[in-house]
Automatic annotation (TrEMBL):
<feature type="transmembrane region" description="Helical">
    <location>
        <begin position="110"/>
        <end position="127"/>
    </location>
</feature>
<keyword id="KW-0732">Signal</keyword>
<keyword id="KW-0472">Membrane</keyword>
<feature type="transmembrane region" description="Helical">
    <location>
        <begin position="81"/>
        <end position="98"/>
    </location>
</feature>
<keyword id="KW-1133">Transmembrane helix</keyword>
<feature type="signal peptide">
    <location>
        <begin position="1"/>
        <end position="18"/>
    </location>
</feature>
<dbReference type="GO" id="GO:0016020">
    <property type="term" value="C:membrane"/>
</dbReference>
<keyword id="KW-0812">Transmembrane</keyword>
<protein>
    <recommendedName>
        <fullName>Transmembrane protein 234</fullName>
    </recommendedName>
</protein>
<dbReference type="Pfam" id="PF10639">
    <property type="entry name" value="TMEM234"/>
</dbReference>
<dbReference type="InterPro" id="IPR018908">
    <property type="entry name" value="TMEM234"/>
</dbReference>
Length: 128
């Protein structure tokens, strides 16, 4: 795959990973209320709750699709660039998606810390 194509796929992976996290948290709401006797019955009840909940399953499947794309892209991409690029972009997308959904993202300190982390990763990537 051409380097530009790899970059496009890696950005898509970051968007899939970053945007689905807040939706997974929203979709899993109510899981704490599932109560059953015994560990196995509790596990099965929680799996059934999540598996039958489209608000959880749609983002989960999109997230796993991103993982599959990432795995396939790693066959030709430079891993030392792919991993930090995807993680940094996914972090930004998660922040933006969470903010849009009204999540408490921790204020300006968290946003500044995330920005500094992304800048640090970018410095490392461009330096290699």
């Amino acid at each position: 795959m051409a380097p530009v194509g790899e970059a496009v796929v890696l950005v898509l992976v970051a968007v899939l990973w970053g945007s689905t996290g807040p939706f997974l948290r929203t979709g899993a709401a109510g899981l704490e209320e599932v109560q059953c006797q015994g560990r196995l019955q509790q596990l099965l009840a929680e799996i059934r709750f999540l598996g039958l909940n489209y608000k959880y399953m749609v983002p989960f499947l999109l997230n796993q699709g991103g993982s599959l794309l990432f795995y396939l892209t790693l066959a030709s991409a430079d891993m030392s660039l792919a991993v930090p690029l995807c993680n940094s972009l996914a972090l930004i997308v998660t922040l933006v998606t969470g903010k849009i959904l009204g999540e408490d993202i921790g204020g300006k300190r968290v946003a500044a810390g995330m920005l500094l982390t992304v800048l640090g990763v970018m410095l490392c990537v461009t330096g290699s």
